[in-house]
Design goal:
The protein is mostly helical. It is about 85% helix and about 0% strand. The protein is extended, with a radius of gyration of 19 Å. About 10% of the residues are buried.
Length: about 150
């Protein structure tokens, strides 16, 4: 299986995540924002993004370097600086995601969700969710590939 579709999905997801603005009907209360930030921290969303960043940057490489070796070397040399340039945006990302949670759930609901993730089942879900997402993505790709094959032979 090629990793190209996965990389493209991660790039698209990251671009959407960082480019979409949150426009809630009303500004969440400070209490809701505090509960939502705590939940986002518990969910380790910033860590997940940091882990995806190298994959995202590698996915951008072909488009930016266009198979020119001299640019590829420059790009490889710049990767650490590019990754460092994203660092200030992590807090902005966490606050934006927290705003989405605070706008979607009540303070009580946020606390209930937070409590769930501190229980053994919640911890297991956090631990296993990446593998589950990868397996689910693979299932979707396999089924899509099979459907395309069936459509071609019909």
């Amino acid at each position: 299986m090629s990793l190209r579709p996965i990389k493209r999905l991660m790039i698209i997801g990251s671009v959407l995540l960082l480019s979409t603005g949150v426009a809630p009907a009303q500004v969440p209360s400070p209490e809701a924002m505090a509960a939502a930030r705590e939940l986002v921290t518990t969910l380790k969303l910033s860590d997940q993004y940091k882990a995806l960043l190298p994959v995202i940057l590698l996915g951008l490489k072909p488009a930016l370097t266009q198979d020119r070796p001299e640019i590829e070397l420059d790009y490889d040399a710049m990767l650490p600086k590019i990754a460092d340039a994203y660092t200030p945006y992590y807090n902005t990302m966490v606050d934006s995601i927290a705003t989405v949670y605070a706008s979607t759930f009540s303070v009580d609901e946020l606390r209930q969700i937070e409590a769930f993730y501190h229980q053994p089942a919640g911890q297991k879900l956090l631990e296993k969710s990446q593998a589950i997402r990868q397996q689910s993505l693979q299932i979707g790709q396999d089924i899509s590939r099979k459907a395309m094959e069936d459509l071609r032979t019909s």
